[in-house]
Amino acid sequence: SALIALDFVKQYSNIKYDFFEDPSRIMITSKWGDMDTATVKKDTQLRIKGGIKSPILKQLKTDDTLTILESGESWAKALTNDGIIGYVKQKNISAVTTATVTNDDYTEETYDHIKKDSKICLAWHQVTNKDSNSKITSIISGTKGVNIISPTWFYLNDNKGSIADLASADYVSYCHSQGIEVWGLVSNLENNDVDSAAVLTHTSTRSTLVNQIIAAAIKHELDGINLDFENLTEDAYGDSYIEFVRELAIKCHNNGICLSVDVTVPASYNKFFNRSDMANFADYIIIMGYDEHYKGSDAGSVASINWVNDGVTNTLDEVPADQVILGMPFYTRIWTTTDGNTTSRAVGMHAAVDQLNSDGQVALWNDDCGQYVASYTVGNATRQIWFEEEKSIEAKMQVIQENNVAGVAGWKLGLEKSSVWPVISKYNK
Q1: Are 260 and 222 in contact (CB under 8 A)?
Q2: N or C: less crowded end of the chain, CB within 10 Å?
Q3: Which of 126, 224, 237 minimizes the C-alpha distance to 172?
Q4: pLDDT for 38-72, tens place per residue?
Q5: Of all helices (H) and strands (E), which one includes residue 247?
Q6: CA separation, residue 14 to residues 9, 27, 53, 165 (Å)
Q7: What is the sign, positive or negative, of the torsion defined by CA atoms of 193, 195, 199, 202?
């Protein structure tokens, strides 16, 4: 058995409790808002089940107030003010009315956020080893308007909560000299031997992970952390990931570090992600507006405009616009179907055009997906490409502008045409 200090829980939770005797019991109330209520019209009984032969739980007095949980044809399921649930005859209670129940003893905890004064233009820089950091000078020189770089420097590296660290002090210093913030990316994708669920569902290992991330951020003088944990499932993680975000956010804010969290577009398979709670804790929620179609799926766009627009709209149902950043792909997939078998490879913008030109084909604009599309035969195979380039990027930037979200993020540097940067800058104001 476990003993719970309810007074302590009450300090941090929107609950109240009452103690009753005969029999001894505690009634905990955690649900607030509109409740269905009714009053007892004449002395009657509350029974275990609906039926006059069912045992009596409590004698009800005229004018007693009941919370109605379910209304039936002859019996209503009701909760008494002293925490007993049973059934009462419908004819012995008044018509159901709505009453608003609040907990005046509780003040909802609020969280401050670290916000930027201007629109965010973030670019992810994939760093696979420390030597890759030396390329930052040439990487930045090919961009325009980027004010945040997120290098893929950290990843969960064992089941104890330790992280691998590829960061470079010279990299950070150079970015800062160019007026660019550095938000180090932390992922769970690099080491396949790590059980992310085991780390996140245990307080001790989760604490180790949080502390290691904060220590690395302070050591390398980072401006922010970008959290990219993927392949999360409800059964394995439950609320543990949200708790991880909360614990990390608190320590980030205590150290002046901005926290952003990457999330997939809302869908049936990820309803367990409480984006509203994430937004309470994290400063920014970055929508991964890509992989509509992916390796192993049927052929299709990586990020069609309607799919992207729906992703933004549905995210805004849970997250304030000034905390939402739309992530866009700087890549596409070249799909090849042979004898009913479809394969694909991810390529950058230039490589996709090179493939089209090599095949001697042209692509036509498709309003439905907001992209140039090509579909043609090569030998005994069908090749299909949904292109990302200036016009498709512009369509996505218009979604950003129309919804007045916080900015844009691009995956990943090196895959884009230089001509997309003026388009991004035009709309990201």
Answers
A1: no
A2: N
A3: 224
A4: 999 999 999 999 999 999 999 999 999 999 999 99
A5: helix 240-254
A6: 9, 14, 39, 40
A7: negative
Average pLDDT, the chain: 96
- Residue 17: what pLDDT? 93
3-state helix, strand, coil in the chain (%, to 5): 30, 30, 40
The pTM (predicted TM-score) of the whole model is 0.84
User: Which candidate, 306, 267, 265, 266, places its Cα nearest to that of 287?
Assistant: 265
pLDDT at 12 over 90: no
Q: Is the pLDDT of residue 347 over 80?
A: yes
State CA 231 to chain mean position distance. 12
Q: Residue 20, SS3?
A: strand
Read off the tokens for 173. Answer: 């210093």
Give the E-state strand segments of 48-193 in sequence order. Answer: 56-60, 65-71, 75-79, 85-89, 97-101, 120-125, 148-151, 154-156, 163-165, 181-187
Q: Please state whether 22 falls in left (phi above 0), alpha (psi between -120 and 50) or beta.
A: left
The half-sphere exposure of 77 on its side-chain side, counting CA atoms within 13 A, is 5
CA dist., res. 92 & res. 125, Å (int): 69
Q: Give all strands (DSSP E) within 15-71, no chain letters.
A: 16-20, 25-29, 33-39, 44-47, 56-60, 65-71
Radius of gyration of the CA atoms of the chain, in A: 28
Place of tokens 């800058």: 425
For the sheet containing 341-348, what is the strand order? 341-348, 331-338, 381-386, 371-378, 364-366
Say how far residue 162 (Cα) sits from the centre of its chain: 23
Q: Where are the alpha helices (DSSP H) in 319-389?
A: 349-358
Contacts by 104-113, CB closer than 8 A, 24 or more apart:
105/16, 106/10, 106/13, 106/14, 106/15, 106/16, 108/14, 109/12, 111/249, 111/253, 111/280, 111/281, 112/253, 113/283, 113/323
Q: Where are the alpha helices (DSSP H) in 117-233?
A: 136-141, 169-177, 196-200, 203-219
Q: Which residue has the tokens 């502008």?
A: 401
Distance CA 250, CA 74 (A): 52
